[in-house]
Amino acid sequence: MKNSKLKTIISLLGSLLVLLGVVLLIPIIVSLIYQDDLVRIYLIPAIFSVVMGLLTRFKSREDEISPSTGMLVCALGWIVISIIGAIPFYLALDYSYIDALFETVSGFTTTGITVFSGLSQMPKSILFWRCLIQWFGGLGFLTFFLVVTFRGQSGLFQLFTAESHKINMSRPVPNIFKTIKILWGIYIGFTLIEIVILKVLGLSFFDALTHSFTTLSTGGFSNYDQSIAHFKQAGYTYYRAIEYVIILFMALGGINFLVHYKVLTGKLSELWEGIEMKYFWGIIIGVSTLIILDHYIEFPFALVEFEEVIRKTLFQVISVITTTGYATEDINSVFFPALAKQLLLILMLVGGCVGSTSGGIKLIRVVILNKLFKREIKKVYYPERAVLPVVVDENVIPDTEIFRIVALVFGWILLIVIGGGITAIFSDLEPWNAFSGIFSALGNIGPFYFSVAKMQSLSDVIKVTYIIGMLAGRLEILPIFVIFNRGAWRD
Amino acid sequence: MKNSKLKTIISLLGSLLVLLGVVLLIPIIVSLIYQDDLVRIYLIPAIFSVVMGLLTRFKSREDEISPSTGMLVCALGWIVISIIGAIPFYLALDYSYIDALFETVSGFTTTGITVFSGLSQMPKSILFWRCLIQWFGGLGFLTFFLVVTFRGQSGLFQLFTAESHKINMSRPVPNIFKTIKILWGIYIGFTLIEIVILKVLGLSFFDALTHSFTTLSTGGFSNYDQSIAHFKQAGYTYYRAIEYVIILFMALGGINFLVHYKVLTGKLSELWEGIEMKYFWGIIIGVSTLIILDHYIEFPFALVEFEEVIRKTLFQVISVITTTGYATEDINSVFFPALAKQLLLILMLVGGCVGSTSGGIKLIRVVILNKLFKREIKKVYYPERAVLPVVVDENVIPDTEIFRIVALVFGWILLIVIGGGITAIFSDLEPWNAFSGIFSALGNIGPFYFSVAKMQSLSDVIKVTYIIGMLAGRLEILPIFVIFNRGAWRD
Ligand SMILES: [K+]
Ligand SMILES: [K+]
User: Is B423 marked as a binding-site residue?
Assistant: First the structure.
């Protein structure tokens, strides 16, 4: 092959396919335990994936991976993985391949919009696979960015996270592979703890396992059409405790995993000292208080107990800011009056912390833009030559990072406009409602404004648009555009 | 007075009050002609304004006006003028002072949201005053920026328009007062031409005069509750021609007046050569085509004639992109299907050209952000040290300007969030609808999403919020925040 860049890309994608093949063996265990006779639907794509992977793993010169190569591998990697990961759904269920792909991308990107209904009647191994891909996607995207960066020794990581300086400086150990091991260690540890607690509180082992997968990945898939509200409706004794536990672990998923590392190694103060953590807790407390007040202004004589108002509010605020997408109360219901609905919408846009599994624009970026805004006001009355840098946690934010954040937000708006327009053309949705679907997809938020039946009935054109939107959002916009740039493919 | 800055500010405001006093004498002529017995309601504020103005015009050292002084004068100036300009409405009509102030601010900022109903029964001089303040506001804000800049010899103008470089470089004559004279000359000339044409097409002289005032200022006040649709409904023979003429003059109001100057002095190509003009025409043609197609997809068997579809579409597209706010067809009607409604919403956000009388974020800023976005994508695959400036019309846009644009857009979003929240608390509007009012106010757009009756019935808290929003939008956000910054008031 002449183009050595293309060679490197294909080779890296090959490694990924081998990895996917191994992961596809996991649901086989579940299939065997529950004897749902579905071993072949995982085995076929697993073998296909491994063979394809081994065939395309050239012995490439791996000493230099350019930023554009890294970006292309990241973007194409998730697309390829999703295309193969969708095969089990397609083989086992009575849905079109586009639906299967939609569900898979919604899984890997931890978006959590579903087009599958009647979940409780589905084979156990399928439900397991659905939640497992969310769990891998959750920390997988972050890992992938880190690995590609390290291999290239390039500034790639800076390209993906506008807050690179923060990550770099607080990188717990010099070796990137050690960092990745630590991150996965924490992730696995948290997952195991949540499984045990949920099991103790009365969930079946299977439900405890799958819901832990989708809590910490802030993915939001559930085995029940009613999401987390199921446990109350089905009469679980400790449904309150179950909800509080899920609140806690959603919050953990929405926090930077490097913060977790520092907290676990003794620096407890990291949990509230960084500016992003301050905003995280501040917004959760502030918005929850406003929503509770708004609820009582609307219903002075109390619809439900005080504890239930607090619990439902806290659950939804944290589900939304971490972009998990679980629900114990529909955010379109009267429980949340107009101001509450607005606040929840804005939280979706903001999203959780950088270095977490959550989606959205990310808190620190909004903080940086807010600081820039204040700086521009100050500039008016400061001497012309005064140097007024944008400072976050005692670090000066370089201009190049601010530009990247602006590009990301601009790309977001652009994709919402285009996606909303496509939705309007190919559906009977109202104009504003047509924006909400692509908004949920881009922010990797979840199924808040459409019913499953509505989502299922939409045209394939819209579904493909949302698939691109989910990937674009999780990849933080730029890589998706880079794919379509011929210049990026040149050697 | 110790604080010489405060002294300068008060002195400049004094000059403005004298000017306002003179302007308040104009409707007296109309009052005398129509004998509506309302001379005193203009005379009282006129005398008050002149006296107050003369008392506060200190002999200040006018050699140096700092940017912050200029901004404070701009912001406070329009507030003071509006407070006094509201007096005639308050004295003549049966509305609260807040309503009168709302209408006045909506006038001066050329927003065009009205809280007055039964317009056709109102005294002629009141209708005249209402349209006159829009006409003055239209070019008045631009003039004010220019004057304050010139007096201070400072970089103030740069602070107001992110496109300063463009204005500076294309400043037609070196003397700023000559520039202002030329701008007003063009403005007055266009207004006279429109008056004559509308009169010839069958409007009364009064209607021709007042509608010309509010077309070129892209203000959008009309003497009729049905806006421009009135002329068709009332059976005017040449209503089609009337609508086309208004389309033309709205477009002229939405174009940079320096472009007009150049075109009038022979450089006709200026009308399409600059990037902003290219986008202006491109968007008008592109969006109109999409809306017409969308209309025919929805109604293949034609609701109305083809000419009417084109005329109504073109009218609304230009009314919206220039933020005039006139209507011949309600944008919430079925005539505009979902995609059309979305496109019109996005046009409102974008707005017209810089240096025009229109509101919104302004085309050139969106163009600059779009170029920045493309630059950031390019950066990924260009060598790390490659210099990739953002270039518009062969000029490199300095980083400081990009930051100012970002701050402006951020301030916009911030004010929409706050204003939308206040609306949600103090009204029974739906959450998304609650955002639309402050959106119309900030963009100086007009009365597109509420009925007059709805607007009138809103709480005073919301009306004051919108008053601040209209001023903030017209002043381009930063000055309003500077007022509330103690640092800006220091010497
Ligand atoms: K999610
Ligand atoms: K307007």
Answer: no
